[in-house]
Amino acid sequence: MDTNQALIEAQRIATFGTLAGALVGGVIGFLGSWIVTHINAKAEWKRQLLQLGHELGIKQWESTLSILQRHADQGRKIKMVPTFVYVNFNVRVLELLADGKLTPESLQKLHAENNKIIQVIDENSKIS
Questions:
Q1: CA 121/CA 113 separation, integer angstroms
Q2: How many folded domains does the chain comprise?
Q3: What is the pTM of this model?
């Protein structure tokens, strides 16, 4: 191989290396951007889900309180659970819905867990 051919071959290798490096760098840059965008979108979705669950829980609590107050006005004894019980339930229902996992079984399990929370609250309120 003479000097000119060696020089041409070296230029080809350098050009190929530069193009390969640019391609790899571009792909890595694109994937990095896509991952960050995906993570941010998922975090925003979760934030909105929590906000909606909170709003629904508050509305449900207010509605229940209104009904119970009417019963209290009629002389009946009422018992109201804290707001967070309603908020927790609604957030978890929305999470199941968003994940495509809302089924009669999952909803029944969620109700059972919520009832356990209410039971613990009742037991602890009797102590104090």
A1: 13
A2: 1
A3: 0.65
Cβ-count burial 41-59 (b if 16+ within 10 Å, e if not): eeeeeeeebeeebbebbee
Domain residues for 76?
Answer: 3-127
C-beta neighbour count of 61 within 10 angstroms: 19
Mean pLDDT across 118-125: 89
User: What secondary structure does DSSP assign to the chain, as a single string?
Assistant: --HHHHHHHHHHHHHHHHHHHHHHHHHHHHHHHHHHHHHHHHHHHHHHHHHHHHHHHHHHHHHHHHHHHHHHHTT-------HHHHHHHHHHHHHHHHTT---HHHHHHHHHHHHHHHHHHHHHHHH-
Note the pLDDT tens digit of each residue in 88-114: 999 999 999 988 999 999 999 999 999
Query: What tokens were used for 8?
Result: 């041409």
